[in-house]
């Protein structure tokens, strides 16, 4: 066995940390969570809310419906509904208990303009500071790097929580994500005791399948998933694209069903899982085989995103789809070389897709990315591959992934700024 005991338990821990339920798009949910916590600390309902958010939070919260609000969008709506009806003990399911009266109160408070938003000038891509005021009292909650990563809490000048953190770092973590690599991920998937990961993977299948089916049943967003099935039929290649796209259709339009996320993103959680599930069922694979394939798909997605960061100008559907392609290749009996080549083939094709925030077109980007992953799978299973020197392709999978990380973090830094400027222009 090449994988060490440390790696084994780290990989199990990563899956349990990353594959958690979330209700709605995670950026407005992160705002609502911080607001719910700030309201709890204040101990009274505020007269004024100030929400300071980094550019990438603004980009991803601007155009998506806040779940449970029917049709409200934006940072102000997320902040107010979090204060009105949010339960901070529920984490990324903070809005699970919101009632109709809470939504109506949020509409009223939006009209009163009690919430002010500001761009937070921060090197951190994911950074939120919520301040609430009631008379002479105030509270402050600061979140950085992760959607529920509260690092500072204040009330009336007293610091109640101050977690040491590096604002320049992508993420502070007690888990060593540097232990992830393709060879050991595949080895882990082959040997893992399924009982140690079954709970999180079964929930991922259940939740993500449910919202995808909801997205096919009802008109959400641009109905990308339903359109694919209507136009191209019920072939497995179409279903593998349509299911995560339909889940995104529903999720971006405020559907109140939860998803199990990957790398902080519901869209990435659905992209990494649902194509694998569809192929697993088509190929009559056992539940155990599907779980092992999901270990590969999820960890490959996390492996890439741990270098890129949770938020960037690089569309996360690409890294998630590359993971899904790796999982599908495994279901077909592909070996390590073929799995690695599937990842490379996917990244060589669609690494240029930009992230311009959370909104209905995410579903189409998911479909395009999964399509590229399926092409990559079929190529690798037939011994066909993009060669080293073909653009960003290197002579090994680690080199190719490292190059994509550089592309996303360094090459697309200015792209990120330009995308945000375009989005906020009137």
UniProtKB/TrEMBL annotation:
It holds the Pfam family SDH_alpha. InterPro entries: Ser_deHydtase-like_asu (IPR005130), UPF0597 (IPR021144). GO terms for biological process: L-cysteine catabolic process to pyruvate. One of its GO terms (molecular function) is L-cysteine desulfhydrase activity. Residues 90-421 form the Serine dehydratase-like alpha subunit domain. Belongs to the UPF0597 family. This is UPF0597 protein SAMN04489757_12127. The lineage of its organism: Bacteria, Bacillati, Bacillota, Clostridia, Lachnospirales.
